[in-house]
Design goal:
Length: about 375
C-alpha cells in the first residue's frame, strides 16, 4: 500500500428536493453570482426558473451555452471576462460535467491577471480561485466531487485535464430527479465514463482487498443501475445509486493507497474528443476493450482474472488467459448492450488522422509511464483496432 495525502473538502447535499438548500449554501460565499449552464436542458426541466426564484435576493449574471467538451474560446474566456468586469463572488454551475469543468477553469482564470491558458497548461500555478457551487444534472464525470476540469482548445486539438485542489466545489447539490430527463445516449455514455474511471484505477500494480472490493462493487452497481435507468428513466432508486457511484469516480477515494495507473484510456480518449468532438463516454467505451486486449500479457493477466471473476462471475477454474479473454468480451458486450456505438467509424472517425492523434497522445499524456506502458505505435494500434 502506497502513502497518500487525501482531502476532498466538497460538501455533498444529496436527494430529492435538496435544491431548497441553495440560498443557505450561497449566502456565506457572496452576493454576486455567475450562473453557468449549457445549451438549455436546465430550462426545459424547470431548474433554471427554480434557481432564479430561490436566489432572487442575489445579483445574478449568466454564462449560457457551455458546450459538451467545453471550449476555452469562447466559454472559459467569456466567463473570466464577466467575473472580472462584474467582480463576481461565486460561480454557480448548473448542468453536466462540461458546465462544471468550464466553471472550474473560469474560477481559476478569474483570479489570474494573465491568459487563463497559462493555468490550464500548468505554465503558471494558480494562487487563488473563486468558490464554486454546483447543481448536477447528469451522472457521469465525478466533477462534482473532484478538483479537475477538462478543457478543449479547438485550434490546437488540445483537450487538457486541469487539476488543482483550489478547484474542488465548495458544495454539490445532487438531486437524482434532475437526471430523469437525461437521454438514453447520455445515460449510457455516463455509465461508460464512470465505469472507465474505476477501470483506470483498478488496473494497476498495487491495490488492496478493500479498494478492489469497492471498485468491483462500483462497476457492478453501474451496470445494474444504468440498465434500470435506460428501461425506466424515472426510476429514482436507480438514478440515485448511479449518481452517487459516479460521484465517487475521480477524486481517488476508490483507490487510496493504490499505485498509479496512468489513466491510459482517458489519455487516448482526450485526443478523440479534441480532434472530432465526440461524446467522452462513447470514446472511452470504444477504446477500453481494445486497450485491454492490447495490454493483456503475462505481467497483467492476474488483474484481468480478478476483474473477470469478481465483476462478471467468470469461472475461476478456467485458464487465466481464457478468463481474461472472457472478461474483455464481457466488457465489450455490456457497452454494446446499453446502446453504445462500439466502433470509431460509427462516431465519425476514420483512419485518416490516427497517426497524428497517436503522436499527439504520446507527446502529451505520458502514457509511456503507465502501468502497462504505451508508446506511439501502441496507441496507433489501439486506435486502429477500435475503427
Ligand atoms: O448543454 P445542455 O443543454 O445542458 O445539455 C447537456 C449536453 O447536451 C445534456 N444534459 C445534461 N443534463 C441533462 C441533459 N439533458 C437532459 N436532461 C438533463 N438533466 O447532456 C449533454 C452532455 O452534457 P455534458 O455536460 O457534456 O456531459 P458529461 O457530464 O458527460 O460531461 C462530459 C465532459 O466532462 C469531462 C469530459 O471530458 C467531457 O468534456 N470529464 C470531466 C471529468 C472531471 N472533471 O473529473 C472527468 C471525466 O473523465 C471527463 O473527462
Ligand atoms: Zn472520464
Amino acid at each position: 500500500m502506497q502513502n497518500f495525502d487525501y482531502l476532498t473538502p466538497t460538501r455533498l447535499i444529496f436527494g430529492k428536493g435538496v435544491i431548497k438548500n441553495l440560498p443557505e449554501v450561497m449566502a456565506p460565499l457572496g452576493q454576486k453570482i455567475l450562473l453557468t449552464y449549457g445549451g438549455g436542458s436546465i430550462k426545459k426541466i424547470g431548474l433554471y426558473d427554480k434557481v432564479k426564484e430561490l436566489l432572487k435576493d442575489f445579483e445574478i449574471y449568466e454564462l449560457p451555452g457551455i458546450q459538451p467538451n467545453p471550449k476555452y474560446d469562447p466559454s472559459v474566456l467569456d466567463g473570466v471576462k464577466i467575473c472580472k468586469e462584474k467582480q463576481i463572488d461565486v460561480i454557480l454551475a448548473v448542468g453536466g460535467g462540461s458546465v462544471l469543468d468550464c466553471s472550474k477553469a473560469i474560477a481559476a482564470g478569474a483570479k489570474y491577471a494573465g491568459d487563463p491558458w497559462d493555468l490550464i497548461t500548468y505554465k503558471v500555478k494558480a494562487k487563488a480561485a473563486l468558490p464554486i457551487v454546483d447543481v448536477l444534472t447528469l451522472a457521469a464525470t465525478g466533477s462534482e466531487y473532484d478538483s479537475g476540469g477538462v478543457i478543449s482548445r479547438t485550434e490546437t486539438n488540445d483537450k487538457i485535464g486541469y487539476i488543482d485542489p483550489l478547484l474542488y466545489p465548495v458544495c454539490s447539490l445532487l438531486d437524482p430527479t434532475y437526471t430523469f430527463t437525461v437521454s438514453k445516449k447520455q445515460t449510457a455514455a455516463g455509465c461508460a465514463d464512470a465505469m472507465n474511471h474505476i477501470i483506470e484505477q483498478y488496473f494497476c500494480a498495487d491495490s488492496t482487498l478493500l479498494n478492489d472490493g469497492f471498485m468491483e462493487a462500483g462497476l457492478k452497481s453501474l451496470m445494474v443501475n444504468a440498465r434500470k435507468c435506460l428501461e425506466n428513466p424515472e426510476d429514482y432508486t436507480a438514478r440515485a445509486e448511479m449518481m452517487l457511484t459516479c460521484t465517487y469516480g475521480c477524486n481517488r477515494i476508490y483507490s487510496l493507497g493504490n499505485s498509479p495507473s496512468g489513466w491510459p484510456c482517458h489519455g487516448m480518449e482526450h485526443a478523440l474528443s479534441a480532434y472530432y468532438d465526440i461524446t467522452h463516454g462513447e470514446g472511452l467505451a470504444i477504446i477500453t476493450p481494445r486497450w485491454m486486449k492490447h495490454i493483456l500479457s503475462e505481467k497483467t493477466v492476474d488483474r484481468f482474472v480478478k476483474y473477470g471473476v469478481n465483476v462478471f462471475g467468470i469461472d475461476p477454474a478456467l485458464d487465466k488467459f481464457a478468463i481474461a479473454d472472457k472478461a474483455i468480451e464481457a466488457t465489450y458486450k455490456f457497452f454494446e448492450s446499453i446502446g453504445i456505438p462500439m466502433h470509431l467509424r460509427e462516431v465519425g472517425i476514420d483512419e485518416s488522422r490516427i497517426h497524428e492523434m497517436a503522436h499527439h497522445v504520446a507527446a502529451n499524456e505520458g502514457l509511456d509511464k503507465a502501468w502497462a506502458p504505451l508508446l506511439e505505435e501502441d496507441i496507433a494500434a489501439i486506435f486502429t483496432a477500435s475503427l
